[in-house]
Specification:
Layout: H1 16-37, H2 42-69, H3 75-94, H4 101-130
Helix pairs in contact: 1-2, 1-4, 2-3, 2-4, 3-4
């Protein structure tokens, strides 16, 4: 089965641990996609969604710590983006019976790919400068 989201090298923020976390999130989105396509039960979708919510929170905590450590000047704006995604993902998770899996997938794909390409890539130079 084809993947819904394909990791591309230009998503990299040049930090192995953050890139790995992003790849895990992409993997969870793809797992959700496979469950939707194969018409899994709502409970199965809920379990995958729960793992995605928990891992997203863990990743954001780590990423925010890294941004603070490298004195990223747009930290608070970035953190606000994280808060919006946390809430929206939790809303989808809590209302799986009211939304289609495809709607949730479209949102996750659009948000994550854009967020990594735009917002996360913006802190990468600060992270590299702090490592010198």
């Amino acid at each position: 089965m084809a993947e819904y989201v394909v990791w591309k090298p230009y998503y990299s923020v040049d930090n192995a641990s953050l890139d790995m976390e992003h790849k895990i999130i992409v993997g969870l989105i793809n797992e959700l996609y496979a469950a939707v396509i194969s018409k899994k039960e709502e409970g199965d979708l809920k379990a995958i969604s729960d793992r995605l919510v928990r891992y997203t929170n863990k990743h954001f905590q780590h990423e925010e710590q890294v941004m603070r450590e490298c004195d990223y000047p747009r930290f608070y704006d970035h953190k606000l983006e994280h808060e919006r995604l946390r809430q929206r993902t939790l809303d989808f998770h809590n209302n799986l019976n009211l939304v289609t899996g495809r709607d949730m997938l479209r949102f996750l794909n659009d948000w994550w790919c854009e967020h990594i390409r735009e917002s996360d890539k913006a802190y990468a130079p600060y992270l590299q400068m702090s490592m010198r």
